[in-house]
Amino acid sequence: MCVRWFRPAAVTMACLATVLLAGCGNTVEVSYPDSATPTGPALPPVPTASELDARFRTALDPAVPATQKVGLMQGLAADPSLLDQLAQIYRSVGAQAVITDVTPTGDRLAATVRLTLNGQVTTGTVPFVAADGQWQIASSWACAKVETLQISSPVCPASASAAPTGPGG
């Protein structure tokens, strides 16, 4: 009897781990010749891994009101509840994510994240972009989750066409 539910539960947890890290490796590398620098507004200082981890944890903390998270993710003003939806998914499966390293890549940051789910540890990358004078989670990271989970969000216009439209679809 125990084996009957364990196998589907294990498969479900493995799938959720894949969903939670889906798209994490999709960082954009930007390099500049030694004599060139990025143009445009000055970039904010590169944060430490612990500083970026604190922002990431706040973004995925369901106790923090959505209105206080708008500056934490690129484009979140279009759907302030998006991070709360993702936080609920992380919480429902008992996932824990910790940013352990930060690498500047031009006008972006690549944050190495360690995800623990059911005692299994995997790593991935969460991209951050400079916006409004601070580092924000790139909308591409959240949109990869939206697409994989088949939910929709105005932050991710392509997700509207991918989301089911009716009871069977």
What features would you describe in this structure?
The structure is a single chain. The protein is α+β, with helices and mostly antiparallel strands and 169 residues long. It has a domain at 45-149: Nuclear Transport Factor 2, Chain: A, CATH 3.10.450. The protein contains five helices and four strands, in the order αααββββαα. It has helices at residues 2-21, 49-59, 82-92, 139-149, 157-162, and strands spanning 96-105, 108-117, 120-131, 134-137. Strands 1-2-3-4 form a four-stranded antiparallel sheet. The protein is globular. The protein starts with a helix and ends in a 7-residue tail after the last helix.
**Nearest-integer average pLDDT:** 77
Tally the beta strands.
4
Largest beta-sheet details = 4 strands, antiparallel
Structural class: alpha+beta
CATH class of the domain at 45-149: Alpha Beta
User: Nearest-angstrom radius of gyration?
Assistant: 17 Å
- SSE series: HHHEEEEHH
What percentage of residues falls in helices of 4 or more residues? 25-40%
Separation, N- and C-terminal Cα atoms: 33 Å
